[in-house]
Amino acid sequence: MQTDLRHAYAHALLARITHRKNDTVLRVQGTLCGSGTTILYLLRPLTATSYAIRRAPEGFAGYIDLVYSFMLGPMRCSLLFCNEGLSATMEMKL
């Protein structure tokens, strides 16, 4: 639960579940937020190991984010499925 005590209408509820097995990660995150006329920032996943700080829209919004990450040889491949669309990233392990 995230809230701003100075602004009663700025709040967010976040739930995250992560399943790890060997070099594979599956993460599901659900976020509900309401910001009224105040500014509220949320943590949203980018890959299995990184997050983005995004500004919540005014009013009420809900997001579902699903990240699937796996090793393909020396590369970590991540797929992000979210309300805005699909994102794929590849990172080389040195």
Sum up the structure in keywords.
single chain; 94 residues; mainly beta; six-stranded antiparallel β-sheet; two-stranded antiparallel ribbon; 0% helix
β-sheet strand percentage = over 45%
Q: Give average pLDDT, whole number.
A: 87
End-to-end Cα distance: 37 Å
Question: What's the count of strands?
Answer: 8
Q: What structural category do the secondary elements indicate? A: mainly beta
SSE topology string: EEEEEEEE
Strand order of the largest sheet: 1-2-3-6-7-8
**Helix count?**
0
Poorly predicted parts: none
**Helix content percent band:** under 10%
Q: Tell me, briefly, the overall form.
A: elongated
Q: Major β-sheet, in short?
A: 6 strands, antiparallel
Rg (CA only):
15 Å
Write a structural description.
With 94 residues, this protein is mainly β. The protein has strands at residues 2-4, 7-21, 24-34, 41-45, 51-55, 60-72, 75-82, 85-92. The strands form 2 sheets. Strands 1-2-3-6-7-8 form a 6-stranded antiparallel β-sheet, with no helix packed on it. It has a two-stranded antiparallel sheet with strand order 4-5.
